[in-house]
Write the structure tokens for this entry.
Amino acid sequence: MAVKGIDVSKWQGNVDFEKVRGAGYGFVIINAGYGRYISQKDGYFEDNYRKAKAAGLDIGAYWYSYAVTAREAAQEAEIFKQAVKGKAFEYPLCFDIEDSSQRGLSNAVIGDMVDSFCGALEKSGYYAAVYSYADFLTKKVPVQCRRKYDVWVAAHDVAKPPYDMAYGMWQYTSTGRVNGVKGDCDCDMSYMDYPAIMKEKGLNGFKKGSAKPLDRTGYRFGDKGLGVYALKKLLGLAYNEGLVKYKLGDHTEFGEGTKDDVDTLLERWGYERNGIAGEGFIRKLFTELEN
């Protein structure tokens, strides 16, 4: 299921992330800065990170590039890593390549820059993505780069991005109105379970396998009875909302399909896929369906 999010920088000023989350947004991509010097770190980055984390939002970050060579892109990546050091991110760290100074560069140079920046992030244990407008991505970023790295595509006020390759996030407007943000705001959709990826693979500051179980006791594979039947009715509602893959049979047994649906939701919420639906699972699912 797609998750709504926003991206912010110093231009949004003080953001009330509690209100943002209350408005139904699940993540924020925060500008960490631009250029090749730590003095260009975004002045609101630390506050934005701290407040978004306290509000319970999942967080990613991006770095605006002015580089025109692979060497300069590598320098920007090193400063980006310095700016985010010691923090954990559930969403990608993104190379924002869209500046007017870069539009006249050859595709080969752009490709080298993307590889230089994103490769440096990956070597340091980060999940790298490339951000730009659909037109720039299609015309300037080589196909092999767009296959190698995740893509965050910008295409505003259209029904679907005019972009024919895979992408994990879509920035669909720059003039959104979101409770908690003053004025216009960039709004996004995410189509991948990034928090689960980071925790399972040990990326972006998380330790590998750091996802913890939601419940240690509860209904599990092989159980039967009215309690399982009631659980499956809840999972049926989750299926109707597109949250799980399987439409379960109308019987009282906890089978493979039920286990898969339970694990899908646990992974979506950032917990270990242990196949157990206990009190915590039922409460969390009920709350999500209620919202």
About this structure: The domain at 3-201 is CATH 3.20.20.80 (TIM Barrel). The mean pLDDT is 94. The first strand starts at residue 3 and ends at 8. The CA atoms of residues 199 and 207 lie 7 Å apart.
